[in-house]
Amino acid sequence: MSRRTPAAVGLAVLGLAMAGCTSTAPVDAGAGGPITVAAADDACDVSTTEAPAGTISFDITNGGSKVTEFYLYATGGRIMGEVENIGPGLSRQLIVEVPEGGEYETACKPGMVGDGIRGAFTVTGSAQRSVDTDTRLAEATAGYQRYVNSQVEALVPKTQEFVDAVVAGDVEGAKALFPIARTYWERIEPVAESFGDLDPRIDGRDDGEPGVEFTGFHRLERDLWQDGLQPDSTAIADMLMDDITELANRVPSVELTPLNLANGAKELLDEVATGKITGEEDRYSHTDLWDFRANVDGSQGAIAALRPVIDERDPALGPLLDERFAAVDALLENYRDGDGFVLYTALTPDDIKAMTEAVDALGEPVSQVAGVVSS
Amino acid sequence: MSAFSRRRLLGWTGAGAAAVGVGAVAGCAAAPAAPGPAQRVVPFRGEHQAGIVTPAQDRLHFVALDVITDDREELRALLQRWTAAAERMTAGAETTPGGATGGNPNSPPDDTGEALGLPAASLTLTFGVGASLFAKVGLDPSLVPPGLAELPRFAGDQLDPALSGGDLCIQACSDDPQVAVHAVRNLVRMGFGTTAVRWSQLGFGRTSSTSTSQETHRNLFGFKDGTNNLKAEDPDGLRDQVWVPADARPAWLAGGSYLVARRIRMHIEIWDRTSLVEQEVIIGRTKDEGAAFGAAAEFDPADFAATDETGAPRIAVDAHIRLSSAESLGGVRILRRGYNFVDGSDGQGHLNAGLFFIAFMNDPQAQFVPMQRALSTKDVLMEYIEHTGSAVFACPAGLGEGGYWGQSLFEA
Ligand SMILES: [Cu+2]
Q1: Is it the case that residue A100 has pLDDT exceeding 90?
Q2: pLDDT higher for A114 or A325?
Q3: Percent share of chain A, pLDDT over 70
Q4: B179: CA distance to ligand 1 center in Å?
Q5: What is the pLDDT of residue B40?
Q6: Which parts form a coiled-coil structure per UniProt (chain B) (predicted)?
Q7: What is the ipTM of this complex?
Q8: Residue A128's pLDDT is what?
Q9: What is the rounded average pLDDT for all residues in chain A?
Q10: Does the beta carbon of A2 lie under 8 angstroms from any beta carbon of chain B?
Q11: Other C-beta atoms within 10 Å of A35: how many?
Q12: Which of residues 344-373 of A touch B (CB under 8 A)?
């Protein structure tokens, strides 16, 4: 949730180029032809683990029973390309530009959760001799914009499912969907918060401020967990859906800079430290660890997009960030419960201290990134 | 939602507007902080660590840290960075040159800046290691000094694990609380990811003098406490009681000392309802002058054999000064360096206050343990106090040129 003031400066409108997007149309696959990926609930068989730099195509077929996703990652978890929402029995294609040789990773994510089934992938040679700094920075923001877009693409239908359950009076169903829909919101919270009018409506908390109507996720959370559905719960749910739809329409106009990414990555960890570790955010549902996970994901998404610039300018910082993100990941895994997490109320003071230490440890190097990318 | 957010300026919008403000701030604050008057700088390097026999400053910020890595090299690198920053800060400088405002305006400053313009204010930073450190970073168990053996449980102990122990400690003492807090805050920040704060304590009003040049101050019970303390001007006493001998094993602690810390909560309101005569009998001293019963002035020697007209000991058999005296402890003394503390109120309307007892010695089992055992079982003062925290650390000898905190241990 935001305690921030509405944006004082108008947002410049920027047509968002959907670089690296997925396509179902047949495409000339370039050198070597498409690589096939046989995805299953417990397997991710990639037909070859090596390809020359340039345009690389993957044909993914989901032979499993769960909806899956396919990713190609570079160092530090930077997403080179991804295909989401591949239903059972369906095939999709991922075409991705990989200009530089090196070690990459493929991943299928059956059920669309967790780290997925990973595999090493080597790209040989180089399609681009030298990449100047401006190009790298532009690639970073474009890459992060792709990330934001993919989250918004999931946020809209997941919020719709949640809203539908509320409208149908399905309290248990809505409770189960609440932390899932919020995951996509929390991953891109700094971008969402840049819309100073939408953020308080969508994610405001009941802080008793006179004259401010309490709406959005947390109002429905209170109804579902504490007060029971109210006469206006349906109206609140519909308004949430309208606001999320408007957010999705406006996100492509956000103008990003590398500094925004760096500061956004840090803000997400600040959110964790002040809202999630304290159990303050989801005070009725206690699903704070879902939000925690999502904030860290979002922070990592922004840092990963900047990774080539970081590696160029401060070679020691990237590995340190990897290590500290991994430490937070490992810690959170201890609190997994099925596809989600234990409730905040199940945590002991020692658990909370361990989380605080891990986030402090991560926050310091993340706070250095803005200086590195702006130097 | 607050009416104004500093973060918004640097956030997702308005970056151009923000840059103007940031640049202006950096521009006018670029001048380096003036160094403090030389006489208030305590040398950082020397035969022994500063902050032990250094004339006790008035303010304390003590922190006990847990090491959260098992990578010894990572810890060693931190100790080297800490040493460089500590040496600069004790000289009245920022943690790094230009650290507070001279860096990239888009980066958080290296130095947090609240000591800018303040003099060194006699800042000393004293470093120690706890018994729990060794296994954690795979140091040879034979390097654990005997003095780090666990203290026995004393009668009446109400120790809170959250206020006890620690793998490392840093004692910051200064004449200015802001200087001490700045030092600890910056060292803690440098350690994030390698160390984490276990507990910390702020103190004010030194309760003992460690130099004959100092007056004896009073504790929160209003008594002079530390009249008979070991003093810097008594090298033989320090050699026998405080410094670990050169031929001791393990050798890495030679020339160092042990620090015993006890957080002692005082039940102030109860004490304040106690009559003056009872207060004085419990302590064994007069409240105004601080003289032992039967003596005229504070520094007159206490005569523990003296009796009154009824034949009873003039200084009661359970008086605080008798139980803690070298005479009743077979010649044992310690160098006390405690501070008063008030951590606000306790939620029941009582001061959460007391004495943060720090003492240096070369054998805690032979010095602190018998003293505390005598006090915990016989001292009437125990009715008014409670020990709530406890820790023992080994503080290595002082650093030569180029040396870093813990070097003798890590390169042993
Ligand atoms: Cu929020």
Answers
A1: no
A2: A325
A3: 90
A4: 36
A5: 87
A6: none
A7: 0.75
A8: 61
A9: 86
A10: yes
A11: 20
A12: 353, 357, 360-365, 367-368, 370-372
CATH architecture of A35-127: Sandwich (2.60)
Mean pLDDT computed over A160-186: 96
Which distant-in-sequence residues (6+ apart) come within 8 Å of B377 by Cβ? Answer: B155
Evaluated on CA atoms A26, A32, A35, A36, the torsion sign reads positive
pLDDT digits (tens, 9 = 90+) for B93-145: 999 999 999 988 889 999 999 999 999 999 999 999 999 999 999 999 999 99
From 2.60.40.10, 1.20.1420.20, 1.10.10.10, 3.40.50.10330, which CATH number describes the A135-374 domain? Answer: 1.20.1420.20
Q: What is the pLDDT of residue A4?
A: 40
Cβ contacts (< 8 Å) between B14 and chain A: which residues? 7-9
Are the Cβ atoms of A5 and B4 closer than 8 angstroms? yes
Q: Where in chain A is the domain with CATH 2.60.40.1930?
A: 35-127
| Inter-chain touch B106–A5, beta carbons under 8 Å | no
Angle, helices B72-90 vs B177-191, to 10°: value is 160
Q: Where in chain A is the domain with CATH 1.20.1420.20?
A: 135-374
CB-based contacts of A177-182 (< 8 A; 24+ apart in sequence): A178/A217, A178/A220, A178/A221, A178/A224, A178/A285, A178/A287, A179/A282, A179/A285, A179/A287, A179/A290, A179/A291, A179/A340, A180/A290, A181/A155, A181/A217, A182/A217, A182/A287, A182/A290, A182/A291, A182/A294
Q: Is B8 on the interface with A (CB under 8 A)?
A: yes
